[in-house]
Amino acid sequence: MDNKLMLMIPGPTPVPEKVLLAQAKHPIGHRSGEFSEIMAEVTANLKWLHQTQNDLLVLSASGTGAMEAGIINFLSPGDRVLVGSNGKFGDRWAQISQAFGLDTHIITAEWGKPLDANAFKQALEADTEKAIKAVIITHSETSTGVLNPLEDINAHVKAHGEALIVVDAVTSLGAYDLPIDELGLDVVGSGSQKGYMIPPGLGFVSVSAKAWQAYEQATLPKFYLDLGKYRKAAAKNSNPFTPPISLVFALQTALQMMKAEGLERIFARHARQKQATRAAMRAMGQPLFASDEAASPAVTAVMPQQVEAEQVRSVMKKRFDIALAGGQDHLKGQIFRIGHLGFISDRDILTVIGALEATFLDLGCDGFTPGAGIAAASEILTAG
Fold first, then answer.
1. Model confidence, pTM
2. Is a pLDDT exceeding 90 seen at residue 168?
3. Residues contacting residue 265 through CB under 8 Å, at least 6 positions apart
């Protein structure tokens, strides 16, 4: 059946009908007073979502563009940085840092395991000369379904006193309680196609006063992603370059929906759906790739037994028109990933679990009782 595709991947995520319709409005001038009013509302609501009074800047870019902006605006060639890497996107931070000539020290953990906060503590305490200029962390590692211990790592950065903390919150912002001002996070980047419930195309960067001090000394080349330009324009509810006006319309509507739901309920919904998904996989005899203690609220990675991960994805897509994400790099073909991020309801979780049960049975998996996954998920969803 046409037009029944169900996205259960960690991005792009499903887009509400109200948001899709907002994009259909006729564009208006991006230098008009009407658009400035929209930008004022959007910026205020973005600060609400980010739990910050810092500058909140909107870029015409993907999440990777926001990540790159977080590097080039606050650092100089040769600066020493610590990069946490335990997945595809931690690796990307290291690649970006190395591409811009930074003295990049990588603290690694096995894919599927969280970063070790003590490793950062040791590196930061050993830096008696305060040469480390930034610590760069992927909060929710989308490739493995791991939520890294940002709060613990951040405490060690704060004890260091000099280093900035730069956070990739691409799949945690809007899914996990991340109080930027309370934690004192310096640079936080994210992307529109995740928890924001709109299509790809916008990047967001929160910048602290401490980061702006570093900006004044930073010498890496920049132009389009020069956040100083965005800060100056944002003070006038404007943009330094032509923005994707239709996406801003979409963002306005999506943020209104999020405010109506409320932060507490948004975070509780993501936590509940994560727990339900994980309980269902266990009831169906399917091992989870990340531990409960380190599980991301945005995505659950499963390493299936008795059947190949790509077979599961293929049947889910062909028979049920449900898209699941695959493994990346060396995990390709070994895991599949269920996204539960953004515009996902409890009904969606039950739908995907039911379809997975049918898929496993169709592929010959016999290690579970039919209905066990639905029962396990239902118990958590109804309790919530």
1. 0.97
2. yes
3. none
